[in-house]
Structures
1.
Amino acid sequence: MGMVVFDIGGSAVKYGFWQDDVLDGKGSFPTPDSWEAMKAEMHRIFDRFAVSAVVTGVAISSPGAVDSEAGVIGGISAVPYLHHFPIKAEWEALFGVPVSVENDANCAALAEVWRGVAKNVQHALFFVIGSGIGGSVILNRQLFKGKHLFGGEFGYMLLDAEHTLSDLGSPVKVAARYGQAMGSAEAADGKYLFEQAEQGEPLAVQYVEGMIDALARGIYNLAVSFDPEMIIIGGGVSVRADLIARIQERVAYHLAAQGAEAVAPDIQVCAFHNDANLIGAVAHFQQTVGF
C-alpha cells in the first residue's frame, strides 16, 4: 500500500510513489495547458502505480493560496486553471481515494520539519529564494498560514519606499536588471550573473552584492520579528554554499549593528532540495487525512 504524490509546477509536474517510508518511482511530465489535460495526465500516472500496488491516497503540492480545508486554491499562479473552484473534490472523484493538497512552499517546510534539518525544532521559518521570495512559518511544528493564507509571503516585505524583498532579492529579477544594464539577453541569466561576479566583472559584483544584502536584510527582519530557532533556506540558490555563507555573514552583521546579536538564528540549507515538495505533501496528507 502507498500513496501517489504530485508536485505541480509552472513548467513541469513531478510525481512519485510513497511506500514503506520511501519515495520511489519518481518522474515528471510537462505541465499541461488545460485542466482536462492535467487530469488525464495525473490519472495516467495514478493508474501506472495502481497496477502493482494498492493506492490509499493522493498527496498534492500546488502553487497558489491553498485552502486545504475548503479544497480550493485561491490567488494566482503560473498554472491559472487550478484556481477558484472545488478542485480537491474533483481530484477525489477522479482518483476514487482521499486527496490532500497544500501550497508548495508549505510542503517544502513540512518536509524539513518532518524529516529534514528542522526535525528537532519547534519554531522555524522556511525562506524560498527563486523567481520571487516565498516561504512558510512553522510555529510549534505546525504551519501558521494566517487569516488570509498569506503566512510566509515574505517577498512582499518592503525594503525601501517602493521595492520589495522579491524585487531586490530574487536572483531571477536581479539577473534581468543586470541583462538590461548590459544590453544583453545572455546576461539576464542568473547563472551567468554569478559567473561574471566570480570573475570580478564590476557591475555583476555590484548586483550580486546588492542581492545578498537584500536577502540578509529580509532574513534580519524576520529573525527579529519571529525569533525562530532556525531559518531554512531553499530554492535554486541553496546549492551555492558560498552564497549561503555570505548571506549568513551579512545577517550576523546587521544583527550586531542593531545590538540584536542574541537573536542569532540557526540558518540552514534545506535537506531535500528537489524532493522537498513531494515529501512535504506526504507529511501534509498524514497530518490531515490521518493514515
2.
Amino acid sequence: MKTDYLRKILAARVYDVAIESPLELAPAISRRTGNHILLKREDKQPVFSFKLRGAYNKMAHLTPAQLARGVICASAGNHAQGVALGAQKLGTSATIVMPVTTPRIKVSAVSARGAKVVLHGDSYHEAAQHAKALAKKGGLTFVHPYDDPLVIAGQGTIGMEILRQHQHPIDAIFVPVGGGGLIAGIAAYVKALSPSTRIVGVEPMDSNAMTVSLKAGRRVTLPHVNIFADGVAVRQVGRETFRMCQELVDEMVLVDTDETCAAIKDIFEDTRTVVEPSGALALAGAKRWLAKRRYKGRTAVAIVCGANMNFDRLRFVAERAELGEHREAVLGVTIPEKPGSFRALCELLGKRSVTEFNYRIAGADKANVFIGVSVSGRDETDRLIAQLDRAGLKAVDLSDNEMAKLHVRHLVGGHAPDQGGEQVYRFEFPERPGALMNFLARMGSGWNISLFHYRNHGADVGRVLVGLQVPDKDRAAFRRFLRELGYDYTDETRNPAYRLFLR
C-alpha cells in the first residue's frame, strides 16, 4: 500500500495551482518550549489552505466528459475554495454545498471564484448528503474532501516537501485531523522514507472522530461535533483514510478550545499571521505532547493548514488565548463581609495584573469575588490559591470551568431572593441569523425562566445559560423536553461558579 501511494504522490498534479509552501522555524515558541519547532505554512497557498492540493489532483484526473458536466463538493470552506480554484483552472463549472454555519469569509471567497454556492444543513454531514443527492440528479462528479486516493495523494505532497526541505532527522510531525485525508497522505509518504518520524494526529476534544474510531477499531459516527474548528468538524472519518491511519499513524493528541486559541496567538507572535482554529491545532497538539513528556531539544513539525479566519471570531480567540497558555487564572474567592477584607484580598494578590474583578455582596457575613488574574502558569495558580487559603479565604479555581468563562464573568447582578426548583443548563446551538430567536421559540413557556444569559462570542456556536424553575412534579416532563429540544446541553445546577455567584 505504501509503495502504491508513494507512486501516486510523486505523480500528483498539484503545482498547476499550489506553491511549495515554506517550512519555517517558529523562534519564540521554540525558545519557550526548548525544542526546535517548524511550521509548514500551508496558510500561504493561493486559497490560504492546503485543500487545493487534493482537490485539484482529483479534478485534473477527470475525463473531458466528466469535466464538461461539472463538479460538486460539500465543504465548510477550505476544500470548497480548492475545488472552485481548480474549476477555474480546468474550465469547468463547480457547485459547492456549504453548511449554513460556514464563516462568511469562506462563502465569499468561494463565490468570488465563480462557483455556485448552496447553503444547506448545520454540519458537513448534512451538506455532504445534499451534495451527493444533487450530484446524482445532475450527473456531476462529486469531489470528496478527504476519502479519495487522488485527494489523499495530493495532500501527501506536503510530506514530500517537508522531507526535502528539512533533510535532518524529524522527531514528530503533527497534523490536524478532520476526515483524515491530510494525515493519511503525509503519513503514506513520510513513513515510507523516514519510518522513525512519528506521525501524530491532533483533534479538538469535542470533535474527535478519528481518536474514537482508532480506539474502537472501527469508524464511529459522533452524535455531534463542536464547530469552533470548523475545518476539522466531521462526525465520521473516511473509510480509506481510517484504514491508512490504523496502519501509519503513531498516536493521536486531543486539545481544548483554550489551547487552540493560545496556539493561534503563538503563530501570530512568530509570523504576524492570524490562522483559523484548525490551522493552529497541530501546534497546540505539539505543545501538549512535548510538555507532557518533558522533552527538550526535539525537532517537531506542525502543519499550519489554513488561515480563513472570520474577523469577528478574533474577540473570542483573544479572550481565551491567555487561559489556554495558563497565563490567566479565573478564581472565585469568598471573603468576609467586613471593613478591610476587600483591601486584604487585593494585598494578597500582590503585584499580579488583575484582568477582571467582579464583586457582589452575598449576605450579611460574606461576599464572593470573581477574579481574573495574570499568572505565569498553573503552578503559580496553585501557589496563589494556597496563599489565599492560608489567609483564611476560600478560593475555587474556575480556569477550566466553561460556565464561568462563557457566562458568569459577563453577568451583572447577584443571587435571586427565591429560586425554588431552579435548574440551570448551558445550551449550545449553531450560530446564524435568527438562531437565538429560534432557540427561544423552541424553549416555549412551560416553566418560569429565572436566569438567562446570551452573548455573541464571535464563534460559530451560540451559547446560552438558562435558569428554569421546575417543580418536582414536572421533572420527568422536563427531562423529556431536554431530549426533544435538539440542542447540546450541560446541567450546571451543581456548578461551583453558579453556587458562588448566582444561586
3.
Amino acid sequence: MNPIEPTHHIATLLEALPYIREFHGQTIVIKYGGAAMEDPALCEEFARDVVLLKYVGLNPIVVHGGGPEITDYMEKLGLPVEFRGGLRVSDEATVEVAKMVLIGKVNKEIVLRLGRYGQPAVGLSGDDGNLFSVSRRTAPDGSDIGFVGSIDRVDVDVLNHIATDYIPVIASIGPGADGQSYNINADDAAAAVALATSAYKAIFLTDVAGWLENPEDPESLISQATPDELRAALDSVEGGMRPKLEACLNVVDGGVGSAHIVDGRVAHSLLLELFTDAGMGTKIAAGQ
C-alpha cells in the first residue's frame, strides 16, 4: 500500500468533520433523477451515500422523478411525448403511465435499495396521507399542459412522523381537489418539500455539471450565485435547467439555507458537494 494513502484518507475525513457537525440533525431534501437513477452503478452509490447521511445524523428526504422511464413506457404504448418549458404535457393517459412508473416501479426500487444498505425507507406519493394538495398549473409561457400540478400544501406531520425512523422516498405525483391525479415536476416537488420542512439544504441531481453560463460549454460552470443574480438571468435560461433554477430560487427565497445543482453522473457527487471545501456543481445562497 502506498504510505501516502492513509494520510490522504484521514485528511478527507477531517475535512468532512466540520460539515458533519454543522449539518447534524438538519433536514436535507434531495431531488433524485437523471443518470443517477439510470446507471446501475450510480444507483448503488446514491443509495449508499443517502444511508451514510442518515447514519452521520442528517435527516435526508428523497424526492424523485423518473422522466426517462416514463418516456420509454409512453413510446412503447404509442403515446405522444411532448414538453413545454421543460414540463411534460400530461393528458389522462400520460398521468396513468406516470403513476405506474413512479409509484409502482421507481419508488419501490429506491426503497429496496436503501434497505439493502442498512437503512429502512418508506415509499410515498403525494396521494399518501394527503401528503400533497395540488392545483393545476400552466407552462411558463401560459399555455395549457394538461394534468400537471403545482403543490399548494405539504403535510409536514406525515413527513415528520416517518422521518424519525425512516428515510422518506417521495414520488412526484399528487391529487387535486377534483380527485384527479396530477403529474408534478420533481424539481418543483422537491422545492415544496424543502420549504414545508424548513430544510437546511435542497440538492437537485441532474445530468450536467451544474448551471452553465453557456449550455454548449461544459467549462462555463457558475459555481456560486445569489438569488438576485439568478433572478436577473432566469429569463435567458431554457429547457430542463429552467425548472431546476426556478426551484432553487423558490427555496432560497422561502428561507432554505442554500440550494445546489449537482452532477448526478459523478459517483458520490452528493457527498462531495456536502462534505468538501471545493464542493461541486452550483450553489445558490444569499450573501455569496
